[in-house]
Amino acid sequence: MLISGWGRFPVINTRVHTPDSIESAASVISQTGALSFRGNGRGYGDCSLNNSAMVSALGLNLFECFDEDSGVLVAGAGVLLSDIVDSFMPRGWFLSVSPGTCFVSLGGAVACDVHGKDHHVSGSFINSVEFIDVITPDHGLLRASPDEHADLFYATFGGMGLTGMIVRVAIRLKRIYGTSVNQVTTRCANLKEVMECFEHGPSWTYSVAWIDCLQRSQRHLGRSLFMGGEFADEGRETGAGLSFSRKKKLSVPFDFPGFALNSMSVRMFNSLYFNRITSRQKRALVSWESFFYPLDAIENWNRIYGARGFTQYQFVIPKEDAEYRLSAILKTIASSGQGSFLTVLKLFGGSNNPGASRAAHDSKVHWDDYEQRNGGMLSFPQEGYTLALDFAIRPDLFALLEELDQMVEQCGGRLYLAKDSRMSERTFQSMYSGHVEHFLKVKKRYDHAGRINTLQSQRLGLAIWFNRTSHVGYQ
Questions:
Q1: How far is CA 120 from the centre of its chain?
Q2: CB burial of residue 37 (10 Å; 0-12, 13-18, 19+)
Q3: For 395-427, how does the pLDDT look when each residue is reduced to its tens digit (9 = 90+)?
């Protein structure tokens, strides 16, 4: 079948297996040569694509057990975050960490080590997971946690499915006492003002900013709408029986023509969106859907970018000199005329996984002289600012992105593998320097022949690096 990531670039023709049990998944893996694993396909680029065979986890979509006291849910890796929200939010439970869409599978959330609007408080997805079950090519089904097969646990988070097939996840939910969100929207004239909101404003559990990325003047560069939010308290002692509903969805029925998204239309949208808030600050009680998952209200919204598809460019840079660095990046984008109307800024906290970091420190957990300190081995978050932009695929886009790569690299930043569809091997090696070697040592233990690979891993040179570090080539 023809298949792609959410960005619809690239598109390949491959075989897709969808086993409906862990036993059948293990059988498929044992009988298949080169392969990759896939959840709900919400990775934007080629991070799950393999030209020979792909194994989907969507058939492993059952809840297995839930502990009302601890909030720990054990479920198949094909369960979507939306399934968890629909089933448990009315009972007073919500995801401890959630990305900007709830249509991500549990296995995909682990493989990408997703983050949300509360990273500065909760870290990334790894911080909400008790254990994972992974089918590895060399050792079969293994349970991995910070205390058991810890190397596999930390390599799998952010490892883009390259260590094995994630088949079961034990996730810890959080108590909530309302389904609405108290949201405060602050109108910021420029980048300096929005960064003041992130760093010196009220201590919101959830915070995010939309940025108008086509402003060129220094006075209005980075003008933004900053949104801080907290779950409302409906005054219930237990959180059970909360009011819950989903809004009716809109849908994009066809691919937009290529000329629909241009600098003029994006400028018009950005102006309308920014000026919908007329006062300095607006307080409102909003639905959980509109706060956490605004784009999920529009089915097939990726069609807006046309038949050629799009790529999301997401990077993180350190806090040091962040205003100066972000200003330079925004000026470069504005000058190119290739603006994004979906431009999101967030602040990452100092520890990607504070719970695991403390545990590793207290128990003196080491392997291969590598002490886990910051989430998964290839996890994206680091302390600093992360900016995500959507760009329609067009001939002159890639030169711009290569220029942005250099700017991000020069200030010690990195790109998000879950969104990537075109980063070079050299850039990846530089941005993730020091992490890749540890990851590949673990991959060798569980996939010695390198059967698991993707178009992304081939493009980034992981197969070549595997050979260099382990002296074992892909077969």
A1: 15
A2: buried
A3: 899 999 999 999 999 999 999 999 999 999 999
At 237-279, the pLDDT tens digits run: 554 578 888 888 899 999 999 878 888 888 888 899 899 999 9
Nearest to 419 by CA among 343, 266, 310: 310
DSSP bridge pairs for 112: none
pTM over the 0.85 mark: yes
Distance (Å) of CA 351 to CA 78, 317, 335, 374: 28, 14, 35, 6
Q: Which two tokens stand for residue 444?
A: 């060798």
DSSP sequence for 94-108: EESS--S-S--BHHH
Where do runs of H (alpha helix) occur along 337-424?
Answer: 354-363, 397-410
Beta strands in 328-428 (DSSP E): 343-348, 384-392, 414-415
Structure tokens at 174: 């959080």
CA distance linking residue 435 with residue 409, whole number of Å: 15
**Per-residue buried b or exposed e for 202-220, using 16+ beta carbons within 10 Å of the residue's own CB:** eebebbbbbbbbbbeeeee
468 burial via Cβ count (<10 Å: 0-12, 13-18, 19+): exposed
> Cα(233)–Cα(242) distance, rounded to whole angstroms?
10
Tell me which residue of 468, 386, 392, 394 sits closest to 425, measured CA to CA: 468
Side-chain-side CA neighbours of 58 within 13 Å: the count stands at 12
Torsion, Cα 103 108 113 114, to 10 degrees, reads: -10
Euclidean distance between CA atoms 258 and 301, whole angstroms: 15
Sort 193 into a burial class: Cβ within 10 Å, 0-12 / 13-18 / 19+: middle
Q: Which residue has the tokens 């990531």?
A: 5
Q: Quick one: which of 56, 55, 58, 38 has its CA closest to 47?
A: 38
Distance of CA 49 to the CA centre of its chain: 17
Alpha-carbon span 288 to 283, nearest angstrom: 15
Across the range 100-112, mean pLDDT stands at 98
Choose the most confident range, by mean pLDDT, from 87-91, 252-256, 435-439. Answer: 87-91
Q: Which uninterrupted H or E stretch holds 469?
A: helix 462-470
Rounded distance, CA 102 to CA 292, Å?
9
Note the helical H segments in 337-420: 354-363, 397-410
Does an H or E element contain 313, and which? strand 310-317
Q: State which H helix or E strand residue 438 sits in.
A: helix 436-446
